Amino acid sequence: QEQLVESGGGVVQAGDSLRLSCTGSVKISSFDVMRWYRRAPGKQRELVAQSISGDIPKYKDAVKGRFTISRDSAKNTLYLQMNRLNPEDTAVYSCYGRLETIDRGVDYWGQGTQVTVSS
Q1: φ, ψ (nearest 5 deg) of residue 16
Q2: How far apart are CA 75 and CA 90, in angstroms?
């Protein structure tokens, strides 16, 4: 697995906003697929948001209207803007990217950043 690096997590109160960032050595604009996942304590990892080149972003129902995934090519960064956070959003958030070549696909993962939302 290749490496991505997340930042922007923290401890906030319900109703607050956070913006997560993800960058790496590969151009963010090169990835065919980029995703944000999260894993809450005691739960399985779940897909939160997805950005596919040439397609509209997709979101988990629980975050629709509150979270926005975007890429900034100039800053070589993938973002997850999270608004109106609630305690159920508490989790480790990880970014993922898949780069397709003519020979194979390569997966990139970040280590994760902790988001804690207090009530």
Answers
A1: -80, 175
A2: 27
DSSP class of residue 1 equals -
In whole angstroms, what is the distance from residue 77 CA to residue 75 CA?
A: 5
DSSP designation for 89:
G
Q: Using CA atoms, how far apart are residues 28 and 53, in angstroms rounded to an integer?
A: 11
How far lies 23's CA from each of 28, 80, 102, 118, in Å? 7, 12, 24, 27
Which residue, 40, 55, 49, is CA-closest to 90?
40
CA distance 98 to 112: 17
* Structural element, H or E, at residue 19: strand 18-24
Alpha-carbon distance values, 32 to 23, 56, 98, 105, 110 (Å): 15, 13, 6, 10, 17
Phi (first) and psi of residue 87, to 5 degrees: -55, -30
Alpha carbon 14 to its chain centroid, in Å, reads 20
pLDDT tens sequence across 2-45: 699 999 999 999 999 999 999 999 999 999 999 999 999 999 99
